[in-house]
């Protein structure tokens, strides 16, 4: 597994839109936000040229070409996604993975960007970063914790502990420790990939999941989909990020934590949850593909360079 060389102040970063678009009024704010962090910015097409079907940032071909130009451009030291949204699946089969393998770079995003994390982790053997996106996070609310977590993981040494925001405890179910590469991303996207060439490979690995705006009964369905597909049994351990705005209108007292306790009552591997990573503010960065050590006896998450 390759841990890409980090980018530093003064380096050029490509901002790409491989999923959904943003408004033309927001493009300038996105560019300025990244420049204000000390980086040069490169874009390869009008990032608001969009509205392919109303929700896609252009055709799959255009978005794939944009990504390939970013990875093959020797001036670019990092590839930062504008936002998530929908339809990243249209890009996957149009990428030249040999080029990406030869030009590993930090690749950052979450949510619908999960499809690329799976592809690059599994087929390019490249660590990617489940972290803040330019429009979704950096422009409006790039708080100190989110920025520190992102920069820490991007520049991590041999070993780095995952921190939660102050006052937010890391919780655990079960007992014991596990050490393995961490893989995963958005729960809905992970389930949607089952049965495709991009299906999550989790045997002997630590599975990370997060989601947003799902009802408890839909989370129930998604998690049991993973269970019956063998993904939970195959995993060496599990880490849950934020399950933001996942509510239960039928019984508000039964929340997603209660669902986890039900599902994992007889699970004999460590489960860590309440990690602030995903669709939440502040949000932590997860280096997907890196070695991860989780401890349910003393709830904690540690990352090591592969």
How would you portray this structure in words?
This protein is an alpha/beta fold and 306 residues long. It has 2 domains: 12-142, Murein tetrapeptidase LD-carboxypeptidase, N-terminal domain (Rossmann fold), CATH 3.40.50.10740; 159-304, Glucose Oxidase, domain 1, CATH 3.50.30.60. It is built from 10 helices and 14 strands. The strands form 2 sheets. The protein has an 8-stranded mixed β-sheet with strand order 6-14-13-8-9-10-11-7. Helix 10 links the parallel strand 10 and strand 11 (271-273). Helix 1 crosses helix 5. The protein is globular. The mean pLDDT is 96.
* CATH class membership of the largest domain: Alpha Beta
Low-confidence stretches: none
Mean pLDDT: 96
What general outline do the C-alpha atoms trace?
A: globular
Number of distinct beta strands: 14
Distance between the termini: 6 Å
Please state the CA-atom Rg, rounded to the nearest Å: 18 Å
Strand order of the largest sheet: 6-14-13-8-9-10-11-7
Order of helices and strands: EHEHEHEHEHHEEEHEHHEHEEEE
Remind me, CATH topology of the largest domain? Glucose Oxidase, domain 1
What is this entry, summarized?
The protein is an alpha/beta fold and 306 residues long. Helices cover 30% and strands 22% of the residues. An eight-stranded mixed β-sheet has the order 6-14-13-8-9-10-11-7. Strands 2-1-3-4-5-12 form a six-stranded mixed β-sheet, with helices on both faces.
């Amino acid at each position: 597994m390759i841990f890409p060389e980090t980018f530093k102040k003064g380096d050029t970063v490509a901002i790409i839109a491989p999923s959904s678009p943003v408004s033309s009024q927001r493009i300038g704010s996105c560019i300025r936000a990244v420049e204000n962090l000390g980086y040069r910015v490169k874009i390869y097409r009008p990032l608001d040229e969009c509205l392919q079907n109303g929700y896609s940032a252009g055709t799959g071909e255009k978005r794939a070409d944009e990504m390939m130009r970013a990875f093959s451009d020797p001036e670019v030291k990092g590839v930062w996604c504008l936002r998530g949204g929908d339809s990243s699946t249209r890009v996957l089969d149009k990428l030249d993975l040999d080029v990406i393998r030869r030009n590993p770079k930090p690749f950052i995003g979450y949510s619908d960007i999960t499809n690329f994390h799976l592809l690059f982790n599994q087929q390019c053997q490249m660590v990617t970063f489940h972290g803040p996106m330019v429009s979704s996070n950096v422009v409006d609310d790039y708080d100190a914790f989110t920025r520190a977590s992102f920069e820490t993981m991007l520049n991590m040494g041999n070993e780095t502990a995952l921190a939660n925001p102050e006052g937010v405890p890391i919780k655990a179910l079960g007992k014991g420790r596990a050490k393995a590469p961490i893989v995963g991303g958005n729960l809905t996207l992970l389930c949607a990939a089952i049965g495709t060439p991009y299906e999550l490979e989790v045997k002997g690995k630590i599975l990370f999941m997060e989601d947003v705006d799902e009802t408890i009964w839909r989370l129930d369905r998604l998690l049991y989909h993973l269970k019956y597909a063998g993904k939970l049994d195959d995993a060496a351990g599990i880490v849950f990020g934020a399950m933001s705005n996942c509510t239960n209108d039928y019984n508000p007292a039964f929340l997603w934590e209660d669902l986890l306790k039900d599902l994992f009552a007889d699970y004999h591997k460590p489960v860590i949850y309440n990690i602030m990573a995903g669709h939440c503010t502040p949000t932590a960065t997860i280096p997907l593909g890196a070695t991860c050590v989780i401890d349910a006896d003393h709830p904690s998450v540690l990352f090591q360079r592969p």
